[in-house]
Amino acid sequence: MIVTTKELFKAAYGKYAIGAYNINNLEQTMGLFRGNLDSQAPFIIQISKGARSYTHKLMLEALIRAADQIFPDAIFAVHLDHGDEETCYDCINSGFYSSVMIDASHEDFETNIAITRRVVEAAHARGIVVEAELGQLGGVEEHVSVDEADAKLTDPKKAREFVERTGCDSLAVAIGTSHGAYKFSGSQGLRFDVLEQIQKELPGFPLVMHGSSSVPQEEVERINAAGGQIKGAKGVDENSFRRAAELGVTKVNIDTDGRLVWTRVHREYFRDHPENFDLRPIGKVFMAEYAKFIAHKNEKLGSAGRLEEVRKLIMEKA
């Protein structure tokens, strides 16, 4: 069942966060649905601009439609991740997405407001909800690339003004995370002090954490042992998700960790089975491993075991 992120956030606020997972292909899609049903969690499917052009946007949409039929008990939102204005309009007009993100955070404050407001007006006219971003995360993820020196934490005072003037439904905030596998060095971590201030300015308003992969060191070590060269990667402590949820974070974006699982599975499989040339055996291994990964993340987010609770709330509203 496809729902809006607004419906999921209403159920989750202050108690847990919803996992937002990026997908690019069939294997990720199947593993994602299985993992969320195994853990009985609502979730958000994220499709990036890069994923839409990897094969074709209609291919990904068809995979999700098929999964919705194969797994009728699943409850999820379909969300455009890091969209520019043109891509947002394309997704809004497609009639398939229930949520879009307009990322104009690289623009100055007034321009960000103007662009976001235009997207909000177009989306709300179609019953689609909008995530916006204020502040800038460093790091690299697909077409998003920001030097760490240019990263900017979200100003809590401006966050309130931004939401009031744009009418956006949720806000991605910069509180110390970054995109990619190289998030932190030394003792760096999440700025809960900034998050607390933002929540005070926007009580009850859904906040979003981008760049929240934990970059499990076991995955990195196994990748490197199987021929990889990922050195010094470090991510967000997944035990911090629940505290963030208590401070208004209702959506946590996780992409890099899924890529690490894919890399580890493929490197180890071909190391151990050099004679193999069939893509299906390794695909089955990945789907199972990805499902386990998703279920584990949902436990850390607090969304595991919440599916029927969310279903009841949605049915009551209907």
From TrEMBL:
Gene3D superfamilies: Aldolase class I. Binds 2 Zn(2+) ions per subunit. One is catalytic and the other provides a structural contribution. Dihydroxyacetone phosphate binds at residues 180, 211-213, 253-256. One of its GO terms (molecular function) is fructose-bisphosphate aldolase activity. PROSITE patterns: ALDOLASE_CLASS_II_2 (PS00806). SUPFAM superfamilies: Aldolase. This is Fructose-bisphosphate aldolase. It comes from Bellilinea caldifistulae. The lineage of its organism: Bacteria, Bacillati, Chloroflexota, Anaerolineae, Anaerolineales.
